[in-house]
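Quick one, C-alpha cells below. Sequence please?
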C-alpha cells in the first residue's frame, strides 16, 4: 500500500507540490524535506547529532550496556541511560522490510530462533528471512543469562535472578526504540549492517531514513556503516542527518579526502588501527573520530588525550 505524506506548505511552495506525496517517490521527499530542514510533520529540524553535546569526550554504550544486559535489547538500552552520552545500536532488515534492532545477520547466537523456527515451519535463521511478526515471537534475552558472555554474572557484577525478571526480551523495531519514552531524549548512533547480496540491500538506507524522519529524530541520530555506499545514499537523500564511516583492519587510501567525499561528520575506526597521528590528522580536518570497542578505562583516557571525540564501550560509565 502506498503511504501519503502531507507536504509542509513552505516546501510545497518552493517545489511546486500540491496536496500530498506518495511513497513511490519517497526518496525524493526525504531529500527535499531534510535539505530544507523539515521533518514529515512540517516541523523545522536544524539540529545535528553533535549539537547534542557540550563537549567531545563522549562515552557511547555499545549495543547498550551489553556487559550487564543482553545486547540490543530494551533492557540494555534502559540500563545505559545515565551511564553514557549516546547509545549505539545495530539495524538488520526483516523479510518485510522493517528495520529491526539486531546485530548479527543470523538469529542463532542471541535468540531462541532454533526452537521457534521449527514451530513456525521456517528453515532459515537469517534475520532477513523472518517477517517482523515472526521475529516478535523470539526471546533475545535469556541467552545472556545462560552464557554469561562477559563473566559479569559469575563475578556478581550483575544478578541472574534480576535479569530473569526482565525476560523475555523482544526484538525491537527502530521505530519502537526511537519512540520509547525512556529513550526519547537519548542521542542514538544507528549502525546499518551490510545487506549486500540480500533483497533488502537497495531499500535499507531509505527505510531507516523514513523511520528517522517519521519519528522526528533527525537531530539526535548518527548513521554509521561499514558499507560506505549506504552513507552516500543517506547524504544524497537526507543531507542534514549526520553520518560516520566505520572501518577495521586498515584505512582507505587518502583518508581525509575519501571521508570528505562521503560527506561524513566522523570516522569510526577499530581501536587496533587508531593512534595519535591519525586522530590529529582527522581533527585538523574538522572530522570527529570515535573509536570502538574500548573497554579499558586507561585506554579510553589515552584516546581522549590524543583528541578522540568518543569511545564505544561495553561497560559504559560517565567520568
Amino acid at each position: 500500500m502506498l503511504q501519503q505524506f502531507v507536504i509542509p506548505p513552505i516546501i510545497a511552495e518552493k517545489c511546486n507540490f500540491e496536496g500530498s506525496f506518495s511513497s513511490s517517490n519517497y526518496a525524493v521527499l526525504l531529500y527535499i524535506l531534510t535539505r530544507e530542514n523539515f521533518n514529515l510533520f512540517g516541523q523545522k529540524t536544524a539540529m545535528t547529532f553533535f549539537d547534542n553535546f557540550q563537549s567531545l569526550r563522549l562515552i557511547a554504550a555499545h549495543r547498550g550496556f551489553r556487559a550487564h544486559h543482553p545486547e540490543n535489547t530494551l533492557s540494555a538500552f534502559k540500563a545505559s541511560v545515565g551511564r553514557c552520552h549516546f547509545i549505539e545500536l545495530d539495524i538488520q532488515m526483516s523479510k518485510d522490510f522493517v528495520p529491526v534492532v539486531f546485530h548479527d545477520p543470523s538469529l542463532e547466537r542471541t535468540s531462541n530462533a532454533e526452537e521457534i523456527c521449527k514451530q513456525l515451519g521456517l528453515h532459515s535463521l537469517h534475520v532477513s528471512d523472518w517477517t517482523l511478526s515472526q521475529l516478535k515471537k523470539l526471546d533475545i534475552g535469556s541467552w545472556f543469562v545462560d552464557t554469561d558472555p562477559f563473566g559479569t554474572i559469575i563475578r556478581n557484577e550483575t544478578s541472574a535472578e534480576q535479569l530473569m525478571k526482565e525476560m523475555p526480551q523482544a526484538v525491537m523495531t527502530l521505530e519502537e526504540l526511537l519512540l520509547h519514552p525512556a529513550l526519547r531524549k537519548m542521542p542514538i548512533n544507528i549502525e546499518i549492517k551490510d545487506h549486500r547480496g540480500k533483497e533488502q540491500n537497495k531499500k535499507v538506507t531509505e527505510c531507516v531514513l523514513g523511520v528517522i524522519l517519521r519519528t522526528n529524530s533527525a537531530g539526535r541520530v548518527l548513521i554509521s556503516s561499514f558499507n560506505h555506499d549506504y552513507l552516500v545514499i543517506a547524504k544524497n537523500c537526507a543531507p542534514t542527518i549526520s553520518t560516520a564511516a566505520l572501518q577495521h583492519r586498515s584505512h582507505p587510501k587518502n583518508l581525509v579526502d575519501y571521508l570528505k567525499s562521503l560527506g561524513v561528520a566522523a570516522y569510526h575506526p577499530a581501536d587496533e588501527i587508531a593512534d595519535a597521528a591519525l586522530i590529529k590528522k582527522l581533527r585538523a580536518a574538522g572530522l570527529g573520530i570515535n573509536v570502538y570497542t574500548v573497554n579499558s578505562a586507561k585506554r579510553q583516557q589515552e584516546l581522549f588525550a590524543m583528541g578522540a571525540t568518543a569511545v564505544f564501550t561495553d561497560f559504559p560509565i560517565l567520568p
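The longest strand covers residues 86-93. Residues 1-8, 14-19, 39-44 have pLDDT under 50 and may be disordered.
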